[in-house]
Design a protein that fits this description.
This protein is of the alpha+beta class and 474 residues long. It folds into 4 domains: 81 residues, no CATH class; 119 residues, no CATH class; 103 residues, no CATH class; 105 residues, no CATH class. It has 14 helices and 19 strands. It has a 4-stranded mixed sheet, with no helix packed on it. A 4-stranded mixed sheet has the order 9-8-7-10. A hairpin with a 3-residue loop joins strand 4 and strand 5. The longest helix has 19 residues.
Length: 474
């Protein structure tokens, strides 16, 4: 391992693989990492050595070897760090006292600053650093020292993550471990490890017990029926007013309650909404997010899951985290506001409990209200329902479709096919395979079916969708 300002460019290297011989200056630069880069054999590309990047201190100690261009960059960096140091959090005594027993702070980014907030209250503000996940660790430790067992999470906002994570492959894992550890009651005698640049906590040595998972078996029809009687967010009228002109960043949390664990939507110390929780409840994330932005408008910038809620939120679904990320992106871009698209309270109620993309959900479900003359007084006929209605068949108030009655089976069948075709055409991208498009349909579509079922009603939405995927993808 060579020092950047050492003699590696003049040193002689011999490749172990092809026996090439030459100086370090003759080598090609290989893969680059945070603290070092590789130099490779120019003949066979085999690594021959690694070179450490210089710190500012290294550069100052070898100032005569630094190019004029690099000197300008180093001086600018020093100036930034000196100014930042006066604003960076260094001690728990600099933090305000905060009321509440379950403190969930948000790590946000605003106008070049990292902002740690708790609802309306700004806890701390300091300059943001690119790939600032190491700063995330340092701040988390100081916060925990100040607030102790009351602090249970420090949740990064979606808009902060590009700068927070940067290009580091390890950043996500590091932040997840830190957030896991924040859930511990107290931090005592944290294990320390030394890196080249600083002393830091060895998070891998901190033991975090996994919480118990409360799985609800939906195969039990009685369980599904009982849950359907519990309150669910389906209208903006159920949400309280928030008197603030600032950006609103909500937190998706969970808490134990009787008779069942609950999803809790928080804004600082205030609980905005709560309803029953269940395993793999990610299909509730978008309907709730839509209603929040419908209620509070473009002020809503994020809905962030706490670390302790992620087990029940994502479950065993491999795509759940990506789905939640897409919804967070839609909130950030204000795609769920009334003046963007054609989303209404009724649309949100219709789609509660189903994972669909914003475009398909608003267009496909909303089209049901105009597909036929729903004002007709027809005592019998065919209705179209979608997948989530299975759980709420006994409660007409919770049914998400079936508002339109079709006089003939052919009319209902035509509308079902139109819904499926609309989804597939909107979501098809050139180069997609049949399986990719079909899996997208199964995960995000409304999956319509026709009732009453009978000898003349043998329509299968999945079979038709598969046939259309084959036709569209060729």
């Amino acid at each position: 391992m060579a020092e950047f300002y050492g003699t590696w460019k003049e040193d002689t290297y011999v490749c172990d693989k092809c026996e090439w011989k030459g100086t370090g200056a003759d080598c090609t630069q290989g893969e680059m990492f945070n603290d070092l880069f590789e130099i490779d054999c120019p003949s066979c590309k085999e690594r021959v050595d690694v070179v450490l990047y210089p710190t500012i201190e290294d550069s100052r100690a070898n100032w005569d070897k630094v190019s004029e261009e690099d000197k300008i960059m180093i001086q600018a960096r020093e100036q930034f760090l000196n100014e930042a140091k006066t604003r960076c959090l260094e001690s728990p005594e600099e933090l305000p006292d905060v009321e509440g027993d379950n403190l969930i702070f948000v790590w946000d980014q605003q106008k070049g600053d990292t902002v740690i907030s708790y609802g309306k209250e700004i806890i701390w503000r300091e300059p943001a650093f690119y790939e600032g996940y190491s700063r995330f660790e340092e701040v988390a430790v100081i916060l925990k020292k100040k607030y102790g067992a009351k602090l249970i999470d420090l949740a990064p906002a979606e808009r902060s993550q590009n700068y927070l994570l940067g290009d580091s492959f390890s950043a996500v894992g590091t932040i997840q471990i830190v957030r896991n550890c924040l859930g511990l009651n107290e931090w005592q005698d944290l294990p320390i490890k030394n890196s080249r640049h600083r002393t830091m906590v060895d998070w891998s040595q901190v033991v975090v017990e996994k919480p118990n998972i409360n799985k609800i078996d939906f195969s039990d029809s009685r369980s599904a029926h009982d849950l359907s009687k519990l309150p669910r967010l389906h209208s903006t009228r159920q949400l309280p007013e928030i008197c603030s002109d600032d950006d609103l960043i909500f937190v998706w949390d969970e808490q134990e309650a009787v008779p069942i664990q609950q999803i809790v939507i928080r804004y600082g110390n205030d609980i905005i909404w709560k309803e029953f929780n269940y395993y793999e409840c990610y299909n509730r994330f978008e309907p709730i997010a839509m209603l929040l932005q419908q209620k509070y408008g473009k002020r809503v910038k994020d809905l962030i899951p706490t670390r302790r809620s992620e087990i029940n939120l994502y479950g065993d679904c491999k795509t759940a985290e990506s789905i939640v990320g897409l919804v967070q992106g839609n909130l950030w871009m204000s795609r769920y506001t009334k003046d963007v698209g054609d989303i209404t309270e009724e649309t949100c109620k219709n789609n509660s409990g189903k994972n669909n993309s914003h475009n398909t959900k608003s267009s496909v479900t909303a089209s049901l209200s105009t597909a036929s003359d729903s004002s007709k007084d027809i005592k019998s006929g065919y209705k179209i329902y979608v997948e989530e209605d299975y759980w709420f068949q006994d409660d007409p108030e919770l049914l998400s479709a079936g508002k339109v009655i079709y006089e003939t089976y052919e009319d209902a069948l035509r509308e079902c096919k139109r819904m499926i075709d609309d989804f597939l055409i909107r979501n098809y991208k050139p180069g997609m395979t049949v399986d990719e498009l079909y899996n997208l349909y199964l995960q995000f579509s409304d999956e319509p079916y026709i009732i009453p079922r009978g000898e003349n009603n043998q329509f299968s939405h999945s079979k038709y969708a598969k046939e259309q995927c084959v036709e569209i993808c060729g």
